[in-house]
Write a structure and sequence with these properties.
The chain is of the alpha+beta class and 113 residues long. The protein has helices at 3-31, 42-47, 56-63; strands spanning 68-69, 75-85, 88-101, 104-112. The protein has a four-stranded antiparallel sheet with strand order 1-2-3-4, with no helix packed on it. It is elongated and about 80 Å long.
């Protein structure tokens, strides 16, 4: 194979490799596997944390940004609850407030409205 043809083939292979690497890079960024996923209900959220060890940062990494930040550093998350009684549909909101002392979870309060 003559040297100019060999250089052309090398460039083509390099471009193919670059295109393949770009596609993989875009695909891996678009997957978003590490995105926080809020639990579907308050009970599941409470089961995923541990008193005395879960930090506010770990909480937001796991559930996403809180719906509200309490004045004392608490994180407040709201969960919608829909129930059917016969033909009637009831919708409630359950609020879970995670309180922290010295940067670890110290108390969990749940309320329904």
């Amino acid at each position: 194979m003559d040297p100019s043809r060999r250089a052309t083939v090398s460039r083509c292979l390099a471009l193919i490799a670059l295109a393949f690497a770009s596609v993989l890079g875009v695909w891996s960024c678009a997957r978003d596997d590490a995105a926080p996923a809020r639990p579907r209900d308050a009970a599941k959220a409470v089961r995923q944390v541990r008193l005395g060890s879960t930090t506010p940062r770990a909480m937001e990494e796991r559930f996403g940004v809180a719906d509200e930040d309490g004045p004392d550093g608490a994180l407040v998350y709201r969960f919608g609850i829909t129930r059917r009684h016969g033909t009637e549909t009831l919708t409630e909101v359950e609020t879970v407030t995670f309180h922290f002392t010295k940067a670890v979870l110290s108390r969990v309060c749940r309320t329904r409205s």
